Amino acid sequence: MVVRFWGVRGSSPLTDRDKLEVGGNTSCVEVSIDEEKKIILDAGTGIRMLGKNLVQEFQKTGKAPKLYIFFSHTHWDHIQGFIFFAPIYIPAFEMHLFGPGRANRHFADVFSGQMQYDYWPVKISHLPAKMAFYDLSEGGYQLEGIKVQAKRHIHPGIAYTYRIEYGGKTLVYATDTEHFKGSLDERVVQVAREANLLIHDAQYTDEEIEAKLGWGHSTWGQAIQVAQQAGVEKLALFHHDPDRTDEACFAIEKEAQRIFPPTFLAREGISVVL
Ligand SMILES: [Zn+2]
Ligand SMILES: [Zn+2]
Predict the structure, then answer these.
(1) Residue-wise DSSP of 40-56
(2) What is the pLDDT of residues 75-108, one digit of tens each?
(3) The model's pTM
(4) What residues does each domain of the chain span?
(5) CATH entry 3.60.15.10 includes domain 2-273
(6) Which residues surround ligand 2, an ion (CB under 5 A)?
C-alpha cells in the first residue's frame, strides 16, 4: 500500500502563507492498492488535487481505477471537496462511497445534502460517474481482498475509525476522535493494534484541549499514547489546527519524536510506502 496525504488540516481549509508547508487543505488520504483500485479516506478539500491527478492518469492510460471512498463522518471538512472532485463528472469512473449509517437516515441522504440546489447546481443523481452508496455499521467488511474494519469513536454525531488490511500490511485512520480526560478510548487502541501506520487526530496541545473538551479531537500527546499502547510501527500526526503555523507544527513534531521516534507530521503531498 502507498499512502499519500492530500489534505491534513483540521476544520477549515486555509491559504495563510505561514501554514502552507504543512498544508492548507482539509482531510483527504489516498491509499493506492494496485492499478485497478484505490481507497480514499475522506473528501475534504484535498480531494480536489487528487481528482486532477486521477483524471490526468486517465487521460494518459485510458483506464480509470475503481474508487472506494470511506468517510470518517460527514462534517464539512470531510465532505466539502467532493463537488470539486473531477472524476465525478466523468462517466468512466466508478466509485463506492461508505459512511456511518444513522438510525433513520441513509448516509447517502446526509452526504448529498451538500448538493441540494440551494448550495450547488448539480444534483448528485445527475453526476455522470457511476456511484453507489453504502451505510456502514460497526464491524468487518471484505472488498476484493481488502479487509476493512469500522469502529465507532468519540466525536459529535457518528464517526468511525477505519482499519484497512491488505497484502499483509495494516493502515489505521483515526481522525476526529476524542479520548477521555486522563484515559484513552480503548476502542481506538484495540482497532489500531500493531498497525504499520496509524494516522491519528492531533489537533490540540495539552494546554489548548482544556477549553475544547467535547469538541471531538485529541492532543498530539494522546495520539502518541495510542500509538505506544497499540504497538504501532509508525504514527502520523493529522488534522492540524487551522491556527497552527508551520513553525509550531514542526516544533510539535520534534517534541513528539523525542517521546516516540517513529512519529511524523502528516504534510500535504508526502507519501508513505507500507
Ligand atoms: Zn475534521
Ligand atoms: Zn468532525
Answers:
(1) EE--STTHHHHHHHHHH
(2) 999 999 999 999 999 999 999 999 998 889 999 9
(3) 0.98
(4) 2-273
(5) yes
(6) 75, 176
